[in-house]
Design a protein that fits this description.
Layout: E1 6-15, H1 25-35, E2 41-45, E3 48-49, E4 57-58, E5 69-76, H2 78-91, E6 96-103
Antiparallel strand pairs: 1-5, 1-6, 2-5, 3-4
Helix pairs in contact: 1-2
Family: Belongs to the UPF0166 family.
Pfam family, one: DUF190
Organism: Mesorhizobium hawassense
Length: 112
């Protein structure tokens, strides 16, 4: 699988407790991205954050939150990411979604 040098980064900001149709939302997103043959997806867990509610979510022991912030990142061609967006909208009840253009320098083990 190849990714074009000029690609798009899709970032999805959600909470760890957010649910998809059958799984935690982050898992539903990654599984759907894999099913649609996107180049890859990574879930990053945050130690501290807040969203539209302004409620802090933290991993600090005194204010332990089980709903830590998560970011799902997906990089692929603009066309493939755009095709994924309606699917994402269908499984994502809330959160923040951003897109930005990126330059892919390496994908896989060989450089071109």
């Amino acid at each position: 699988m190849q990714i074009p040098r000029q690609a798009v980064l899709l970032r999805i900001f959600i909470g760890e407790d957010d649910r998809g149709p059958d799984h935690p939302l982050y898992e539903s997103i990654v599984l759907k991205a894999r099913e649609m043959h996107l180049a890859g997806a990574t879930v990053l867990r945050g130690a501290l954050g807040f969203g539209h509610s302004s409620r802090l979510h933290t991993a600090k022991i005194l204010r332990l939150s089980l709903d830590l912030p998560l970011v799902v990142e997906i990089v692929d061609s603009e066309e493939k990411v755009n095709a994924f967006l309606p699917v994402l909208e269908g499984i994502m009840p809330s959160g923040l979604v951003t897109l930005e253009k990126v330059q892919v320098l390496q994908y896989g083990t060989s450089r071109e």
